[in-house]
Amino acid sequence: MYEVLEEKGKSSLILPGEYGYELRRMVWNNSIDKKPACISVCESEEDVVQAVKFAKRNGLDISIRSGGHHVAGFGVCDGGLMIDLSNMRKVTIDENRQVALVDGGARAGDVDKETQKFGLAVPLGTVSKVGVGGLALSGGIGYLRGKYGLTCDNIIAARVVTNDGDILDVNEVSHSDLLWAIRGGGGNFGVVTRFEFALHKVGPKVFTLDVMYDYKDAKKILEKFNAFVLNATDDAIAINLIITVLPPAAFLPESLHMKKVIMVTGVYTGDIEDGEEAFKPLQQLATPIIDQSMVMPFTQVQNKLDKMIQEYVNVYGTSLYFQELTEEVTDAILSKIDSAPVPSVLFQLWALGGEMNRVASDATAFAIRDAKYALLVDTMAMPGEDEMCELWTDSVYNRLLPYSHKRASYLNGIGQGEGLARLAYQENYNRLVQVKKRYDSDNKFRHNHNITPD
Ligand SMILES: Cc1cc2nc3c(=O)[nH]c(=O)nc-3n(C[C@H](O)[C@H](O)[C@H](O)COP(=O)(O)OP(=O)(O)OC[C@H]3O[C@@H](n4cnc5c(N)ncnc54)[C@H](O)[C@@H]3O)c2cc1C
Questions:
Q1: How many CB atoms lie within 10 A of CB 25?
Q2: Quick one: CATH architecture of 2-84?
Q3: Which residues have C-beta atoms less than 6 Å from ligand 1?
Q4: Among residues 376, 411, 382, 410, which one has the least CA distance to residue 396?
Q5: Cα separation of 383 and 34, whole Å?
Q6: Which of 178, 224, 263, 277 is 20 to 30 A from residue 43's alpha carbon, by CA?
């Protein structure tokens, strides 16, 4: 511990008991209560280099926290060094090259704010506070997936600090094996201090779908939704179906408090008029309770779900991919929803396809390129409900596993679990192990869906 104190003068290390320690070790999932030996609050790439070298000298594990939103709480670890990137959020747009330079701790909203000034966008997720770091490194499924692919498909270069504290320029010609690996392989290989993303023309206004239906029509809605997805164009593969019980929140009319509903949300990524036409079937899946579909600025779409998201609650999350919503799958999903032990469950079905599925399964580390749906389930537990919620979330996984596509999960949406990385990376797993051996042979970066060097 003396060395920690000595080093403290040189960088912004925070120790247990010191100001900021309790706040900085908190992550979005409040059920995670891990206590790092120290936290390094990095302001620059040089700070990251010093932090990594410090961890190496002191034999400490490293966890990397960007937006802190992973449901498994990978950003924080017990007894190791937490590298906190949350102050590194700079975003610069190079209009000539049509690229965005994004610091490793930026949030999705930071990027959208800057890119939309130029009528451009990086494909990101649908909640503005989520960190770009975790999102991009393990996939990134947002409204632009059908037209422009996953976030990880749009990483064209990066600066990576390795476990020796070396800074690598990673691109198609330099360390191209690492570029391949960070396009989906998570935070396994080093700290990404800066991403370079391809930019695309989007907005500034888009047609957005936002229809709410009564859960009583669930079966019919899922059937029709599936029929739409199977024939959807790239511009329309930007739709999510969400089943939840609405909270008694002030922004909702009282008549909707605690009502079980199905929401169908999306963005048409082509012309506005075409979107109004194309999404009509999704506005008529049953009799809507509310239909707020409208034209709105893309930046507003990207913030729209924020108010639905609770911060610092205990959450248990699971995920699986599917090929089709057959009657068997639909019945299994609905039977699990009907048996939920608490109302605060979020069942999301994201339609997949278009550009994200045109990428060959071995072209990037992200291997699942032929699924039609990603299912993500989050169960929010109130005090005293944790064990019950965790068990039930596991039971959703086990019940749906036999129907899933390749038994694989979207790693950004599932808690820690044995063998999940291998299933998600499929044939790419062995190649990822080789890259891991080259860049992190002693597995310093293990607080993630881990690819073990052995
Ligand atoms: C409210 C909410 C909404 C979401 N919406 C979407 C969505 O629309 N689409 C989608 O695809 N996913 C979505 N997700 C899932 C999200 O992609 C993951 O939670 C993601 O890991 C969050 O990234 P983060 O940087 O905030 O998380 P963190 O917990 O900070 O990091 C997650 C992992 O990534 C690693 N990591 C992060 N940054 C770096 C870096 N710079 N260098 C190296 N490793 C790094 C960390 O070590 C850790 O292992 C959502 C999650 C939440 C909670």
A1: 24
A2: 2-Layer Sandwich (3.30)
A3: 27-28, 64-70, 74-75, 85, 104, 125-127, 130-131, 133-135, 137-142, 186-187, 191-192, 309, 412-413, 447-448
A4: 376
A5: 18
A6: 178
Other CB atoms within 10 A of residue 384 CB: 7
Task: Please say if the pLDDT value at position 4 is more than 60.
Answer: no
Do 91-201 and 205-413 agree at the fold level?
no
Distance CA 5, CA 367 (A): 44
Contact 283, 211 (CB under 8 A): yes
User: What is the mean pLDDT of the segment spanning 400-418?
Assistant: 97
E strands, 95-238, in order: 99-103, 120-121, 155-161, 167-170, 191-198, 200-201, 205-214
Boundaries of every domain in the chain: 2-84, 91-201, 205-413
Q: What average pLDDT does the segment 271-294 reach?
A: 98
Query: Phi/psi class of residue 119: alpha, beta or left (left: φ > 0; alpha: ψ in -120 to 50)?
Result: left
Token pair belonging to 221: 């809605």
Tokens of 106: 């930026």
CATH number of 205-413: 3.40.462.20
How far is it, in rounded angstroms, from Cα 292 to Cα 295? 10
pTM, two decimals, is 0.96
Phi, psi of 147 (to 5 degrees): -90, -40
- The CATH number corresponding to 91-201 among 1.10.287.3510, 1.20.1540.10, 3.30.465.10, 3.40.640.10 equals 3.30.465.10
Q: Closest Cα to atom 17, ligand 1: which residue?
A: 135
Ligand 1 center–CA 207 separation, angstroms: 27
pLDDT level of residue 281 (50, 70, 90 thresholds): very high
Give the number of the atom of ligand 1 that is nearest the alpha carbon of residue 192: 42
Percent residues over pLDDT 70 in the chain: 98
What are the φ and ψ backbone dihedral angles of 257, each rounded to 5 degrees? -60, 130
